């Protein structure tokens, strides 16, 4: 397919990568071995978190995925016929190399005429909720994912793709350490789950995540807005 040239720059703020099966496990500490597993159920591969199978993402290997643009009609006119999700997504396609690797993804961006793109993780969306009762484990898996992401995608690929590392807020000191880690490796944006979280920290917390740091790297863009005091049952949205 020839490169598409547009008369204006295009920055895609909602592009996604598909994680490979080792994304959560390659760098997971030994004490958490088995926390994330891929299991066979009736001939299909599923992901199990703490031995509980999650169907939130039906095909966690991403070998076959919905075709690009499959939901265009749904987002344009809604679902007046009451179609199921499977009917809306239609027949899947075999995943292209660019769905899980940066170099072929850049070629796809050129074909589409995209100048730059944020690259959100996909499978990561099920992590924090599934192990919300064990913040130490969440931090361990998030760091493993961020290490994998940096190794495979970097956090700034050719100054055109900006993969988005995850920052979990369950233990605020650990969150700040993770933020420092990703910033030192070139992260331009971070992903914070917009949901209720329980935080622990000593000494007393400051009102906002970035208020305890200063300098040219602070603050950085995040995928949330606003902040409230870090107390139990606080939500950040």
What would you say this structure looks like, in words?
- The chain has 237 residues and is an alpha/beta fold.
- It has a domain at 11-22 and 102-235: Metal-dependent hydrolases (TIM Barrel), CATH 3.20.20.140.
- Helices cover 24% and strands 16% of the residues.
- It has 6 helices and 10 strands.
- The chain has helices at 72-77, 85-89, 102-112, 127-130, 135-152, 172-184; strands at 11-16, 36-41, 44-49, 52-54, 64-65, 93-94, 116-120, 161-163, 196-197, 234-235.
- The strands form 4 sheets. Strands 1-7-8 form a 3-stranded parallel sheet, covered by helices on one side. A 3-stranded antiparallel sheet has the order 2-3-4, with no helix packed on it.
- Strand 3 (44-49) and strand 4 form a beta hairpin.
- The longest helix has 18 residues, at 135-152.
- The N and C termini lie far apart (40 Å).
- The model is unreliable at 202-216 and 224-237 (pLDDT under 50).
Q: Which descriptors apply to this entry?
A:
237 residues; alpha/beta; TIM Barrel; three-stranded parallel β-sheet; 6 helices; 24% helix
Concise structural overview:
The chain is α/β, with parallel strands linked by helices and 237 residues long. Helices cover 24% and strands 16% of the residues. α5 (135-152) packs parallel to α6.
Describe the SSE topology.
Elements: E1 11-16, E2 36-41, E3 44-49, E4 52-54, E5 64-65, H1 72-77, H2 85-89, E6 93-94, H3 102-112, E7 116-120, H4 127-130, H5 135-152, E8 161-163, H6 172-184, E9 196-197, E10 234-235
Parallel strand pairs: 1-7, 7-8
Antiparallel strand pairs: 2-3, 3-4, 5-6, 9-10
Helix pairs in contact: 5-6
């Amino acid at each position: 397919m020839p490169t598409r040239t547009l008369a204006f720059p295009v920055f895609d703020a909602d592009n996604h990568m598909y994680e490979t099966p080792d994304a959560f496990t390659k760098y997971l500490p030994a004490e958490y071995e088995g926390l994330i597993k891929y299991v066979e159920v009736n001939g299909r591969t599923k992901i199990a978190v703490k031995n509980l199978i999650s169907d939130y993402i039906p095909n966690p290997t991403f070998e076959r995925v919905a075709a690009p643009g499959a939901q265009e009609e749904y987002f344009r006119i809604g679902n007046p016929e009451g179609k199921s999700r499977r009917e809306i997504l239609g027949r899947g396609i075999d995943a292209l190399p660019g769905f899980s690797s940066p170099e072929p993804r850049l070629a796809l961006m050129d074909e589409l005429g995209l100048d730059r793109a944020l690259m959100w993780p996909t499978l990561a969306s099920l992590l924090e909720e599934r192990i919300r009762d064990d913040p130490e484990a969440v931090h361990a898996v998030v760091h493993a994912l961020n290490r994998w992401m940096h190794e495979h995608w970097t956090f700034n690929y050719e100054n055109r793709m900006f993969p988005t590392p995850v920052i979990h807020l369950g233990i605020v000191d650990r969150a700040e350490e993770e933020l420092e880690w990703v910033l030192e490796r070139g992260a331009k944006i971070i992903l914070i789950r917009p949901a209720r979280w329980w935080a622990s920290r000593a000494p007393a917390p400051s009102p906002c995540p970035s208020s305890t740091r200063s300098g040219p790297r602070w603050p950085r863009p995040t995928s949330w807005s606003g902040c409230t005091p870090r107390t139990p049952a606080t939500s950040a949205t």
